[in-house]
Design brief:
The chain is of the alpha/beta class. Helices cover 29% and strands 32% of the residues. It contains six helices and twelve strands. Helix 1 crosses helix 5. It is globular.
Length: 229
């Protein structure tokens, strides 16, 4: 039986907009296929062992400050995990801290851990509302979610999708999220995976490919999920 280990990074600090639902979606979609799955919550001060999937959610600036400096202690380990092709999903604040830095509107620049070639600068106004993007990574090829952020993220990586409604990474390039190796960063909340089961399956399959060289997933009945989509 296949088995996947999921690490939920700093859920006590970065877990707004229902981000914990992403863990639930991954866990359920594994278990429905007979894939054994375990979830470990990693909080401030905890050591991190090797996992197959890493998830980090969003949070407010105050919580991001604490996590930013905690992540510096884990930079070398998480960089090695990225390079061995472990799967990562970073949402909003967690996404921002995976880049080189996040510059708040008022306050000191927060150091990132440079898992991504990206940086974020807060703007004067927030981007709030529904987002639809077209992606080349999944089928169906639309991704939907809700954004609520003042950060403008700029990156040299491939984007996750082209925005057709909403803002996405910033207010200039109409790109949403990014993809680098097996890392996906995005501003899509609500949470993103229950309303985009095809994206959840993309992450699960990448983890199985990396661990077991499995190249396909059993199909599930996603009629209810796609109505939500």
């Amino acid at each position: 039986m296949s088995e996947l280990r999921i690490a939920h990074l700093y859920p006590k600090l970065l877990n707004i907009y229902g981000d914990g639902g992403n863990i639930s979606a991954l866990k359920c979609r594994c278990e429905w296929r007979g894939i054994k799955v375990s979830v470990d919550e990693i909080n401030v001060g905890d050591d991190i062992a090797e996992h197959d999937i890493y998830f980090i959610g969003g949070g407010q600036d105050k919580q991001q400050i604490e996590v930013a400096y905690e992540l510096q202690k884990r930079k070398e380990f998480l960089t090695k995990e990225r390079d061995r092709m472990a799967v990562f999903l970073g949402i909003c604040g967690g996404y921002q801290l995976m880049g080189h830095y996040y510059q708040p509107h008022n306050g000191e620049k927060l150091p990132g851990i440079s898992l991504l070639d990206a940086y974020t600068i807060a703007g004067n106004n927030r981007f709030i509302g529904n987002v639809t993007a077209v992606t080349s990574y999944t089928e169906p090829n639309t991704l939907v979610g809700f954004e609520n952020h003042c950060g403008r993220t700029y990156s040299n990586h491939d984007c996750l999708g082209d925005v057709i409604k909403g803002f996405g990474n910033n207010d200039t390039d109409k790109k949403e999220g990014l993809v680098y190796k097996n890392f996906i960063g995005t501003y899509l909340h609500e949470p993103v995976l229950p309303k985009n089961p095809h994206l959840a399956d993309y992450l699960i399959l990448k983890a199985l490919q990396n661990k077991y060289n499995i190249d396909s997933l059993e199909k599930l009945d996603d009629s209810i999920e796609m109505k939500a989509h």
